[in-house]
């Protein structure tokens, strides 16, 4: 029993401190992923809603309050990956929201996939969104800058160039699929180093309140237009 409790504690600790370790492949979703998906089944997105869709960075944002808009729905799930978003996409697209703000891919980057593999999976997701809900205005947000000075996420060490290269691909994916590309780097990156600004994070990846505020200010005109 003590060993079993230790395993449960270790699993919980791993999830809380290294959410990037969730698997990429379908069929191996985390307990938290299933918890959130079953909740979202009970809380349908309605026509006219604005949906923020993504992983832990989206999950942590109180967008309804940041934009003072009750029609905004948060559909972020911590540790999610491109294939995970696609698997639950029907929850967002079935009722055709007015806008979808997509931010996904950093966890996939941590699994040592190539830029070609990442962009192919991403474009497949985007094509599905456009097919399932063509009325929705899709905003493809760039992967945010990271800051490896914190030494927190070892599986993202040295991946800055992959992130930048994938963002270049996202621009082209947006053009090809009638979406709007949103570059978040001017709002979040240190101008000298290109890293996520230290005042915006306490782990080099996830955002503090000031980071969410900077993100919200950068896209406010798109949310309200």
List keywords for this structure.
single chain, 225 residues, alpha/beta, Rossmann fold, five-stranded parallel β-sheet, 11 helices
Describe this entry's structure for a reader:
With 225 residues, this protein is α/β, with parallel strands linked by helices. Helix content is 47%, strand content 10%. Strand 4, helix 9 and strand 5 (180-182) form a beta-alpha-beta unit. A five-stranded parallel β-sheet has the order 2-1-3-4-5. The chain has one domain (48-224): SGNH hydrolase (Rossmann fold, 3-Layer(aba) Sandwich). The longest helix has 18 residues, at 115-132. The protein has eleven helices and five strands; from the N terminus they run H-H-E-H-H-E-H-H-E-H-H-E-H-E-H-H.
Fraction of residues in helix? 40-55%
CATH architecture classification: 3-Layer(aba) Sandwich
CATH topology: Rossmann fold
- Please state the overall shape, judged from the principal axes of the Cα atoms: globular
Mean pLDDT: 90
As for the number of domains, it is 1
Enumerate how many helices there are, as a single number: 11
Main sheet attributes: strand count, strand direction, barrel closure: 5 strands, parallel
How much of the sequence lies in strands comes to 5-15%
Strand elements, count: 5
Through-space gap between termini: 57 Å
């Amino acid at each position: 029993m003590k060993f079993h409790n230790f395993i449960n504690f270790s699993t919980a600790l791993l999830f809380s401190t290294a959410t990037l370790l969730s698997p990429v492949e379908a069929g191996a979703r985390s307990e938290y992923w299933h918890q959130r998906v079953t909740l979202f089944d009970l809380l349908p997105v309605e026509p006219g809603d604005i949906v923020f869709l993504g992983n832990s960075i989206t999950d942590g944002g109180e967008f309804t309050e940041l934009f003072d808009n009750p029609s905004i729905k948060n559909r972020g799930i911590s540790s999610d990956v491109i294939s995970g978003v696609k698997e639950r996409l029907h929850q967002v697209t079935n009722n055709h929201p007015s806008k979808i703000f997509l931010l996904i891919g950093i966890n996939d980057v941590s699994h040592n996939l190539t830029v070609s593999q990442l962009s192919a999976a991403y474009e497949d997701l985007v094509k599905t969104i456009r097919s399932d809900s063509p009325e929705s205005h899709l905003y493809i947000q760039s992967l945010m800058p990271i800051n490896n000075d914190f030494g927190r996420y070892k599986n993202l060490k040295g991946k800055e160039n992959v992130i930048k290269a994938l963002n270049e691909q996202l621009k082209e994916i947006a053009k090809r699929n009638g979406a709007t590309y949103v570059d978040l780097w001017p709002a979040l990156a240190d101008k000298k180093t290109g890293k996520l600004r230290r005042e915006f994070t306490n782990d080099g990846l996830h955002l503090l309140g000031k980071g969410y505020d900077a993100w919200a200010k950068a896209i406010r005109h798109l949310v309200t237009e």
